[in-house]
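Sat 14:20. Reprocessing the chain from the morning session after the first attempt stalled halfway. Input below, unchanged.
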Amino acid sequence: MAGIYLHIPFCKRRCIYCDFFSTTRSEQKAAYISALCKELEDRHSYPGGEAIETIYFGGGTPSQLSQEDFAKVFSYIYKVYDVLPDAEITLEANPDDLTPEYITMLRTLPFNRLSMGIQTFNESILKVLQRRHTARQAIRAYKDCRNAGFQNISIDLMYGLPGETAASWEEDLKQAIALHPEHISAYHLIYEEGTALWTLREQHKVEEADEDFSVSLFSTLIDRLTAAGYNHYEISNFCLPGFHSRHNSGYWTGKKYLGCGPSAHSYNGISRQWNIASLEEYIRGIRQGTPVFEVEELDLYTRYNDFVITTIRTQWGMPLSRLRNEFGEKLSAYCLRMAHPHLEQGTLEIVNDTLKLTRQGIFISDGIMSDMLWVED
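Finished this time. Tokens:
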């Protein structure tokens, strides 16, 4: 089974921390939707005939699309692909887009999961981040979605934010838990080069959180959410039992996925492919039948490195039987040799022939995975 990711690049305005491909040129939307539908049709064979079990509208800001836009895209998906009846179909949305009228419209479409980009409930920090919504709007939108019948809602939070304190983070988590969403993603703020936030830091107008404070915020996150009944199933993701993100879990478990739209990535088991990060060139290429993309063929060692990065980060860990069967004795022995110091230190453990991070290991997961990667001599 496979997934489809649809990149919707339109935003009312860019968030100061975001480095995903996006544009504020909404006048291009109609041309883009037509190109997106053509790409879906042209690439119907990419998943290899596998049934589609997840569809994910990401961005950008997918909640900038209209009912007509969504209906057109869905008509092509269901015409061309074998979509499972119980497929997980997710829409990323900004809280201020989720008016009662917009929510009512979404209920007429196949969406059965919402992912709301709340980031924080702290009004002053929302202003620093130049988010379009207020905390009150976010809470109201969440409750309106719930009242409209959405039974699978994820919210995004960020920590390590400018002006954040241990107390304000506790308040964010308290409010998030009170809403009781099925899923919570929580990411540390990253200062990406080229963003407005990067410039503000360079100008000493904001200060980056230091490592010790960031670790304490992450520790609080794990403690509060697990105590509230959330399963910490991936480094940055928590869910109530049975509500893990099936789409994102497909990335981590090696399933095929088709990515459509500018900058979207695809994976078919033997190669990775990604579209050009330009709206104009994307539309032109699709229209002319000469799509602009790059392909990376994956050799054994690259696939091994992907296997390390995607499996170790989850609660399911690395199945050692798969390691042996798919990558052979040489890489299997290498992996366990590189993991040995971390097993000795108690940051990794082997449970039922599966290599996993311990609670201690989660905090240094990047370093552990880096140690286990294959590096050419």
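The radius of gyration is 21 Å.
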